[in-house]
Amino acid sequence: MNEPQNVTLPNGRNLSCDTCQNELFEYHQWKLQTTGMSFMNLDWANRDANCFVCSECRRIHWFHT
User: What's the domain of life for this entry (predicted)?
Assistant: First the structure.
């Protein structure tokens, strides 16, 4: 597991949790799975999402790449 950190958004502002306003997040990268690609056994071709998990309330903030 990675250490919680501040996240700077492309507009220069810090990400803050929509639920608790915390500004420390763990970073994860997860696959965005779709029914069609899973049906054809092509999950590896789906897009990735950058996910920031709030270190306080555990809410996940998703950003697709």
Answer: Bacteria
Residue (of 55, 64, 49) closest to 16 by Cα position:
55
User: Which residues does residue 27 pair with via DSSP β-bridges, in sequence order?
Assistant: 52
Give dist(CA 20, CA 45) in Å, integer: 34
Report the greatest alpha carbon distance in the chain.
41
Report residue 63 as tokens. 């950003």
Residue 57 scores a pLDDT above 90: yes
Q: Count of CB atoms within 10 A of residue 20's CB?
A: 13
> Which parts of the chain are beta strand (E)?
25-31, 48-54, 60-64
pLDDT mean over 16-41: 84
